[in-house]
């Protein structure tokens, strides 16, 4: 097990180098000079442009810029945004907010999705199953911004149950609405996934064996069916969590959540290379870690899966 | 200048129509209306400053809005754009070239330091010094001794006479210099700021109506909290208890907060609500012209666009644009058709400058002029207008191009660049070989600011490389006049020539749209489209 984890961590190094290089290259290749854009429609004197370019190392060749960046990363210096704030500080400010939002969304979709999916699967073809199919199809086909605007208007403005946007400090009660929006889309997927998996497991030999041993349905369902049905669902949830962690740009924008997605979007618009690359680097790291955790979780859920040395 | 990213974000600024300033109507002075609570804090929208909060290094609205609240300059602008003394006791000159500036006595920064002549001179010297790479450096370029090439730590043109008096000597007479002094680049700095400007920019210490609510009041990407500065005794006295500026990533989110009662004053209505916000907020909304001029520039270096032939073609193109229809249909009335090269909010503006008929839609005349140009040299190729595709420009560019196709019978098309940065880079390094979208937001409320930097020979933002000695002379003469009316006459004469040459084809002026909640009163928008927060009252 330890050897497996170590091997996975070592694999992460080339992945990280490769992604940062690619991202850096793409930011670099973006047409246009961010320094010129800083001045809007005014044209600054050429000396001023030169001086600013020098300050942000934009006058150096691409590969030199990248090496400077890498060197700084290894010394723990993630650079400074145009507003003079250390990127590490921005990360510290925004990641906890996104983490809370993602955790809440995953919690909502997990609880609702798995329980409805389980019931649908066990009562395949019933009224409950049919109506959950219709509802989840509707939810899957809704673009997230439509859902976000409608929920914001209905719960925030019309009913006034929630704050329309997330207030300063991103208090947890303000995050409920955006978390529900984020959860809604994946919720439908999880219902479908759980249902299919439950139906599949229900027909397995070991379930019949358990039933013929005289075990009650109340024991078979949670221990034998549900647990064995969860593997695809857990994979999906983990990947979803990873996706949410790297920022739900649209939802964060609509609800003004001071999280990763909104910050990254603004950094891209401003052409702030260091901020963008540092954010993405951390995101890649999170993705790698989440995926590793999922693989380890398989072993817990299914005793047949073992990671050899 | 406060960049609102005319390219990227300023699709926001929109809407024309009737002026519906609340509190200005005769019925507005209702004696039974609840008086404002002097301790109530106003919440308003803003955006994360792009730079540390240092006056000479802030050139965008996000930071500018905060600086204007926490600093007091020599002068301030009222809602009409007229300048009045703030920290200055008097600003005097005989020749429009040397100014003697006297400060009011006993002014203080919020850390207790006195505001002296040195507070201004040191701050300006810092901003002007090339070594400090300040974004607003160009504001000091007319002061004697200024240089972009070498570092000048102390401008010879700035002399401290005593604690409350200093003199400014300019390179040439510039009568609108006092008008500029309300701009944030000219704010004073306390001596302690220079010990570590980076730290200062995080927790700036000013002398204005408001001050930061303690260390760390600037919560990055979230908001900044301002409270009333008890020591400020200037003309911009706060009628409320403070100002919380909340940073929004999208105008839609800010608008939803206004509707949901979480925001008091909003100074930008999202596109999605432009058609409805007036119905929803009624007399709690405003639509007024902004000091933003939109055009497209046809560089003289393009084939067929120089000399007599070029002028005929430019005039023909201008007359083939139906500005009324485009502003009406495409912008739903959120732009006002242009009648000159400046803006209606500027003192001295006139709709009827001789020659401005060239901005009226006149397809017959356009055809005639185009044919005359063809007689000089026959037209070939496609007329293209470059624009940044991330700024919502496609609709009007296509409309203009279609108009040219139909009325002049030539091939015309838009030429989109993916980003604002790319378009600006091509324009700045002169590699662009087409006409291109251009715009100007005024730095300070004066006609010259719309003309000098754009059409003076070799001027900083003269991206079309226009040059006409007559215009240069008139602009220079206008600057030398100490009487504003006389100066404006010269500037209008310069515009008459511009109507002939059309270095840029004027299109329309932007407008600002705002709305506010039921709990606030006395909301008025300034000439620069930012609400005058100090006079807003709030009752709860």
From TrEMBL, chain A:
Name the record gives this protein: Oligopeptide transport system permease protein
Main location: membrane
Residue ranges crossing the lipid bilayer per the database entry: 12-30, 101-122, 134-155, 175-194, 233-255, 275-301
InterPro entries: BPD_transp_1_N (IPR045621), MetI-like (IPR000515), MetI-like_sf (IPR035906)
Protein family (similarity comment): Belongs to the binding-protein-dependent transport system permease family.
Pfam families the UniProt entry points to: BPD_transp_1, BPD_transp_1_N
PANTHER family: DIPEPTIDE TRANSPORT SYSTEM PERMEASE PROTEIN DPPB-RELATED, DIPEPTIDE-TRANSPORT INTEGRAL MEMBRANE PROTEIN ABC TRANSPORTER DPPB-RELATED
Record organism: Agromyces hippuratus
Domain ABC transmembrane type-1: 95-298
SUPFAM superfamilies tied to this protein: MetI-like (SSF161098)
Entry keyword GTP-binding: no
Signal peptide range: none
Subcellular location: Cell membrane
Keyword hit for Transmembrane: yes
Assigned GO CC terms: plasma membrane
Keywords: Cell membrane, Membrane, Transmembrane, Transmembrane helix, Transport
One GO term (biological process): transmembrane transport
Membrane topology value: Multi-pass membrane protein
Superkingdom of origin organism: Bacteria
UniProtKB/TrEMBL annotation, chain B:
GO annotation (BP), single: peptide transport
A GO CC term assigned to this protein in UniProt: periplasmic space
Pfam families: SBP_bac_5
Swiss-Prot/TrEMBL keywords: Signal
Signal peptide: 1-20
GO molecular function per UniProt: peptide transmembrane transporter activity
Sequence ranges assigned to domain Solute-binding protein family in this UniProt record: 84-461
PANTHER family: ABC TRANSPORTER SUBSTRATE-BINDING PROTEIN (PTHR30290:SF83), PERIPLASMIC BINDING COMPONENT OF ABC TRANSPORTER (PTHR30290)
Protein name per Swiss-Prot or TrEMBL: Oligopeptide transport system substrate-binding protein
Organism, as annotated: Agromyces cerinus subsp. cerinus
């Amino acid at each position: 097990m330890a050897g497996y984890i170590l091997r996975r961590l070592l694999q992460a190094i080339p992945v990280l180098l490769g992604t940062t290089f690619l991202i850096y290259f793409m930011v670099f290749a973006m047409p246009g000079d961010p320094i010129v854009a800083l001045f809007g429609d005014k044209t600054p004197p050429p000396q001023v442009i030169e001086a600013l370019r020098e300050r942000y190392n934009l006058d150096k060749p691409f590969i030199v810029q990248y090496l400077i960046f890498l060197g700084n990363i290894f010394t723990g210096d993630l650079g400074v945004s145009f507003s003079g704030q250390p990127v590490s500080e921005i990360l510290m400010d925004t990641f906890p907010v996104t983490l809370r939002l993602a955790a809440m969304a995953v919690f909502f979709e997990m609880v609702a999705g798995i329980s409805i999916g389980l019931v649908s699967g066990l009562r395949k073809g019933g009224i409950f199953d049919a109506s959950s199919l219709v509802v989840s199809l509707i939810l899957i086909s809704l673009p997230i911004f439509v859902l976000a605007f409608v929920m914001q208007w209905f719960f925030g403005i019309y009913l006034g149950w929630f704050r329309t946007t997330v207030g300063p400090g991103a208090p947890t009660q303000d995050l409920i609405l955006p978390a529900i929006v984020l959860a809604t889309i994946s919720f439908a997927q999880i219902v479908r996934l759980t249902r299919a998996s439950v139906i599949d497991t229900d027909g397995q030999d070991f379930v019949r064996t358990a039933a013929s041993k005289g075990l009650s349905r109340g024991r078979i369902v949670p221990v034998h069916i549900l647990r064995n049905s969860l593997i695809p669902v857990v994979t999906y949830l983990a990947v979803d969590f990873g996706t949410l962690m790297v920022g739900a740009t649209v939802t964060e924008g609509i609800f003004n959540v001071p999280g990763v997605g909104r910050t990254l979007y603004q950094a891209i618009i401003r052409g702030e290379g260091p901020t963008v690359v540092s954010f993405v680097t951390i995101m890649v790291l999170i993705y790698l870690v989440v995926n590793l955790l999922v693989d380890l979780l398989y072993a817990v859920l299914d005793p047949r899966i073992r990671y050899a040395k | 200048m406060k960049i609102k990213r005319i390219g990227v974000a300023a699709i926001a600024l929109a809407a024309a129509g009737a002026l519906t300033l609340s509190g200005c109507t005769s019925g507005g002075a209702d004696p039974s209306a609840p008086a404002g609570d002097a301790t109530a804090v106003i919440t308003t929208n803003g955006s994360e400053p792009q730079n540390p909060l240092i006056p000479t290094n802030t050139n965008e609205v996000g930071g500018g809005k905060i600086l204007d609240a926490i600093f007091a300059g020599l002068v301030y602008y009222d809602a009409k754009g007229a300048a009045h003394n703030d920290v200055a006791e008097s600003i005097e000159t005989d020749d429009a070239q040397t100014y003697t500036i006297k400060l009011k006595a006993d002014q203080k920064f919020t850390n207790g330091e006195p505001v002296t002549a040195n507070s201004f001179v040191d701050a300006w010297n810092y901003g002007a010094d090339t070594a400090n790479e300040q974004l607003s450096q160009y504001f000091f370029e007319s002061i004697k001794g200024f240089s972009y090439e070498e570092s000048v730590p102390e401008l010879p043109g700035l002399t401290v006479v005593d604690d409350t008096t200093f003199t400014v000597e300019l390179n040439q007479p510039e009568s609108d210099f006092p008008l500029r002094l309300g701009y944030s680049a000219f704010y004073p700095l306390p001596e302690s700021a220079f010990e570590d400007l980076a730290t200062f920019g995080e927790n700036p210490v000013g002398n204005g109506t408001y001050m930061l609510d303690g260390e760390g009041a600037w919560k990055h990407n979230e908001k900044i909290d301002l409270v009333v500065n008890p020591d400020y005794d200037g003309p911009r006295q706060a009628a409320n208890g403070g100002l919380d500026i909340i940073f929004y990533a999208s105008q839609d989110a800010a608008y939803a907060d206004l509707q949901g009662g979480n925001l008091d004053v909003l100074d930008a209505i999202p596109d999605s609500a432009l058609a409805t916000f007036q119905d929803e907020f009624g007399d709690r909304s405003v639509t007024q012209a902004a000091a933003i001029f939109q055009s497209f520039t046809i560089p003289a270096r393009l084939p067929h666009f120089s000399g007599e032939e070029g002028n005929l073609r430019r005039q023909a193109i201008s007359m083939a644009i139906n500005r009324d229809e485009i502003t009406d249909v495409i912008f739903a009335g959120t732009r006002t058709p242009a009648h000159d090269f400046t803006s209606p909010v500027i003192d001295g503006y006139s709709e009827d400058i001789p020659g401005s008929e060239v901005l009226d839609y006149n397809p017959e005349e356009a055809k005639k002029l185009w044919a005359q140009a063809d007689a000089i040299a026959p037209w070939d190729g496609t007329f293209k207008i470059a624009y940044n595709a991330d700024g919502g420009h496609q609709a009007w560019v296509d409309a203009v191009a279609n108009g040219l196709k139909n009325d002049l019978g030539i091939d015309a098309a838009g030429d989109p660049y993916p980003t604002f940065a790319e378009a600006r880079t091509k324009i700045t390094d002169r590699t662009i070989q087409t006409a291109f979208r251009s715009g100007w937001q005024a730095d300070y409320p004066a006609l010259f600011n719309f003309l000098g930097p754009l059409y003076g020979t070799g001027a900083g933002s003269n991206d079309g490389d226009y040059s006409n000695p007559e215009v240069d002379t008139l602009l220079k003469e206008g600057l030398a006049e100490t009487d504003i009316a006389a100066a404006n006459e010269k500037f209008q004469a310069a515009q008459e020539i511009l109507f002939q040459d059309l270095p840029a084809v004027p299109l329309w002026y932007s407008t600002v749209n705002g709305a506010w909640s039921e709990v606030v009163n006395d909301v008025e928008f300034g000439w620069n489209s930012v609400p005058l927060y100090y006079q807003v009252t709030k009752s709860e």
